[in-house]
């Protein structure tokens, strides 16, 4: 399964529309970290948040490296949400693990 990651500029709109795999990013903190809010790609409708760094992986765990793209985001490592979803966000698409 591949699912397009759609960026929302407004977090409230992300919450209202609940499109699986869509996301919103907070403004950077002083240390450069940001919060990546997303709707679980599994279709559960859950709103989730992870800590990311633009071009770096924050030291605090759990955290992810973000490539800085709003249109073709890539996160590393894979995103694992309990028993709902495990996959990669690469080049703007969510790709489920095996």
Summary tags:
98 residues, mainly beta, five-stranded mixed β-sheet, four-stranded antiparallel β-sheet, 1 helix, 9 strands, 40% strand, globular
Could you explain how this protein is built, in words?
There is one protein chain. This protein is mainly beta. It has one domain. The protein is built from one helix and nine strands, in the order βαββββββββ. It has one helix at residues 11-17; strands spanning 2-4, 23-25, 33-39, 47-54, 64-66, 75-76, 79-81, 85-90, 93-96.
Tell me the layout of helices and strands.
Layout: E1 2-4, H1 11-17, E2 23-25, E3 33-39, E4 47-54, E5 64-66, E6 75-76, E7 79-81, E8 85-90, E9 93-96
Parallel strand pairs: 4-5
Antiparallel strand pairs: 1-9, 2-3, 3-4, 5-6, 7-8, 8-9
Low-confidence stretches: none
Mean pLDDT: 95
What is the number of domains?
Answer: 1
Judged by helices, strands and strand pairing, the structural class is mainly beta
- Along the chain, the helix and strand elements come as EHEEEEEEEE
Question: What distance lies between the first and last C-alpha atoms, to the nearest angstrom?
Answer: 10 Å
- Helicity, in percent? under 10%
Q: What Rg, in angstroms, do the CA atoms define?
A: 12 Å
Number of DSSP helical runs: 1
Largest sheet: 5 strands, mixed
| Strand numbers in spatial order across the main sheet | 2-3-4-5-6
- The count of DSSP E runs of length 2 or more, i.e. the number of strands, is 9
Q: Could you say which overall geometry the principal axes of the C-alpha atoms support?
A: globular
The amount of beta strand, in percent, is 35-45%
What is the chains' assembly state? single chain
